[in-house]
Every structure is written in structure tokens, then in C-alpha cells.
């Protein structure tokens, strides 16, 4: 758990931002039959994340960065940060999905089907294109079944956000106090800051519980081999 504790501050800052922005990276299912290397690099409760999946996400993250900037040179520190981000996103997506289920949140098969059929990257002329969908699955080396498990977890997390975020309110007196220190801040900007802080505290408390009760286990030896 040394790696995780070392990078915990990054996890709380970066992944909560991703949660609020709705920009999860591609996530993870409980059974990933397409993985070439099935040794678990991460286990959360009964969900195992294989080394093969981790490497696929890591390599695709690097490829995406290089496509955005062909001249990009990644240092060892850059690569370590990418690896930590992949691990962070694995942890975040699974925990948010589990917490959503604890709240009684569900995602129906029809809801999942509609979501996939309206995902922009799978559309051709604004119509769902099975070829585009299969090309995506092939590029990520993942099966349709596993991707649908993944997407369901992401939708669960998004639904949980819809419950938690609107409950965060800012009183006029509270905002007046903040404005004395930052006159330019708007009520919505401060509310977003407060949302981030509260969700950070909420998530860190849950995450600590997972760690203290050994519900989150990182294969440190396997992870270090990827450094």
C-alpha cells in the first residue's frame, strides 16, 4: 500500500475533479476475459483489475497524449504520473459505483443500451454505427460485455453525482464572508469550490475505510515492475 499512500493527495485532488467534470477514463469490469495477463494488480472488494487491463489503459493514455502532441517527449516522471492516474481512475470508478449501489441507484439494460447508442464516438451521421463501436472495442482490446460492465459503473457514478452535488448549498452570509477575501468570485464559482471540498472529504473518508478494512489491495510488487 506504500504507492497508494504516497500518491493519496493526488488521488483526492485529481479524481474528484474528474468525477465532477464527468470525464472518467475508460473503466473496468469484474471479469475481463480479453486480458492477456490476468494477474491482479488491484483488488477492490471482489472486483479484480488485471495487469493486462492496466497496461492497456496505460498504453492508450500515452498514445492519446502523443496524438495530441506528436513532438511530446515523456520523462520518467511523466510516465510515473500517467501510471498513477490510471490507478487512481480504477479506484475511483469502482468505489463510486459501489457507493451508488449502496444508495439503491440502478442502471437498467435499456438505459445502458440508450447510452451506448448515443455515445458520439460510436455515431456515423448521428446514427449508431456498429462498425465504429467494434473499432473502439478492438482499439482498447476489450470485449463488448466488459465495456458494457464498465459503462454501467460510470453511469452509476454519474447518478450518484446528481444526488450529492445539488445538496451542497451556499448561504448568503457564507458567500459574503468569502467575497471579503475574493471580491471577484461568483456564487456559482464558490459553490463549485465547496462542492469539491465536500466531495473530497466524503470520498477520502470512504477510501480510508476501504484501506483500513483491506477492501482495497494493490499488488505493490507488480505495480513496481511497471515503473
Give the topology.
Blueprint: H1 2-6, H2 8-21, E1 40-44, E2 47-50, H3 51-68, H4 76-102, H5 109-117, E3 123-124, E4 127-128, H6 130-139, H7 144-164, H8 172-181, H9 187-212, E5 216-218, H10 220-224
Helix pairs in contact: 2-4, 2-9, 3-4, 4-7
What is the helical fraction, as a range of percent? Answer: 55-70%
Main β-sheet: number of strands, strand sense, barrel status?
3 strands, antiparallel
Total separate domains: 1
Query: How many beta-strand elements?
Result: 5
Q: Report the total helices.
A: 10
Oligomer: single chain
Stretches where pLDDT is under 50 for at least 5 consecutive residues are 7-36
Q: What percent of residues are in strands?
A: 5-15%
Quickly name the level 1 CATH class: Mainly Alpha
Query: Taking strands numbered 1, 2, ... along the chain, how are they ordered across the largest sheet?
Result: 2-1-5
Mean pLDDT: 81
Distance between the termini: 15 Å
CATH homologous superfamily assignment: Porin chaperone SurA, peptide-binding domain
Rg over CA atoms, rounded to whole Å, is 19 Å
What is the CATH-assigned architecture? Orthogonal Bundle
What is the SS-derived class?
A: mainly alpha
Amino acid at each position: 500500500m506504500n504507492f497508494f499512500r504516497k500518491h493519496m493527495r493526488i488521488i483526492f485532488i485529481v479524481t474528484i475533479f474528474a468525477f465532477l467534470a464527468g470525464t472518467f477514463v475508460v473503466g473496468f469490469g469484474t471479469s475481463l476475459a480479453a486480458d492477456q495477463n490476468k494477474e491482479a494488480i488491484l483488488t477492490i472488494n471482489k472486483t479484480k483489475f488485471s495487469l493486462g487491463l492496466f497496461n492497456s489503459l496505460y498504453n492508450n493514455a500515452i498514445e492519446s497524449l502523443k496524438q495530441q502532441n506528436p513532438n511530446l517527449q515523456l520523462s520518467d516522471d511523466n510516465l510515473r504520473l500517467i501510471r498513477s492516474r490510471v490507478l487512481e481512475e480504477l479506484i475511483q470508478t469502482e468505489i463510486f459505483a459501489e457507493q451508488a449501489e449502496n444508495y439503491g441507484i440502478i442502471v437498467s439494460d435499456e438505459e445502458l443500451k440508450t447510452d451506448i447508442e448515443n455515445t458520439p464516438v460510436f455515431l456515423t451521421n448521428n446514427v449508431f454505427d456498429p462498425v465504429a463501436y467494434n473499432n473502439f472495442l478492438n482499439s482498447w482490446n476489450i470485449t463488448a460485455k466488459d465495456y458494457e460492465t464498465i459503462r454501467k459503473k460510470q453511469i452509476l457514478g454519474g447518478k450518484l453525482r446528481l444526488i450529492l452535488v445539488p445538496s451542497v448549498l451556499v448561504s448568503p452570509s457564507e458567500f459574503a464572508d468569502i467575497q471579503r477575501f475574493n471580491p471577484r468570485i461568483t456564487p456559482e464559482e464558490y459553490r463549485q469550490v465547496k462542492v469539491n471540498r465536500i466531495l473530497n472529504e466524503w470520498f477520502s473518508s470512504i477510501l480510508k475505510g476501504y484501506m483500513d478494512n483491506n477492501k482495497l489491495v494493490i499488488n505493490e510488487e507488480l505495480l513496481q515492475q511497471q515503473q
